[in-house]
Write a structure and sequence with these properties.
By secondary structure, the chain is an alpha/beta fold. The strands form four sheets. Strands 3-2-1-4-5-8-12 form a seven-stranded parallel β-sheet, with helices on both faces. The chain is globular and about 55 Å long.
Length: 357
Amino acid sequence: MPTAIVTGSGGLIGSESVAHFVEAGFDVIGLENDMRARFFGPEASTRPITERLLERYPGEFRSLEVDIRDAGAVMSVFADAAASLELIIHTAAQPSHDWAASDPQTDFGVNANGTLNLLEGVRAHAPEAAFIFCSTNKVYGDLPNRLPLEGQVFRLELPSDHPYYEGIDTTMSIDASMHSLFGVSKAAADLMVQEYGRYFEIPTVCFRGGCLTGPNHAGAQLHGFLAYLMRCVVTGQPYTVFGYGGKQVRDNIHSADLVAAFDEFRRAPCAAAVYNIGGGRLSNCSMLEAIELCEQIAGRELEWELSDQARMGDHRWWISDLRPFQDDYPNWRLDYDVETILREIYERNVDYWTVSA
């Protein structure tokens, strides 16, 4: 039976990956030390998700409390799994550009050095295994903010004849922009993943994601936009929109759609692949549009305020161009749009949030 290693296995994309690949016939080893609780507080802990996965898959999944910054521990995991290791899905990260500024050493250690440790484990023990990395659109810094956006009633939008109207692709530079420290640490990891693909001919891919979401997201103010927004609507907690009049646009991809893309790549991997990935033109919204949808679904009004201060390096508009990935993997498609995602988040969590409020 083939083995997969999933880092950040208790998180949104990690837990979706565990379930998907167990069902696909893999033994899955999760590396998870619940640093999300340290980053964002106990409400953002991944431990409940890990416990549910262990209960659901007692024979096919095991979770190891390994810090990916520990090179020796990482190498030991790879050595033990080497004989059957076919897939590595690297989702573990410090994911907030706001938080990164408070502790740059930890941010870079997790995002960059941790990724290097994993790549070294692959190179030493499983160089033919597919290595899938959850990168980020923050590698482009604030260059998207220089696009000629037009103000509409509820959103900012590109002119329909602009080359990026269908979405931003990887022709956008990652240079000469402000990234946030998080964006820099993830860009370092992204480039290293590409280099191990080219230099050592390891099948690697960087998926540069926009907003990744789904019902298992432990949303917090600094990370997990849709889940946190819906939670605030349900519980009556005040919400702050930072900048741009609430018209900033994000594409949102459901965790199941993203992991389906992972599966397509592992079936036909190549070296040093890079794709922008997200909800594309099917699944995107502005903050104002997201608030209205959440209120409709929950049947409650949100108490919110608008701050004039935008977050450093935050994007005014981001929609991913999915066509390059779809051209290479034509069997893949999106199954979820924003409204479907929000309804699932609400239905899965409303009882828990109501009791906890």
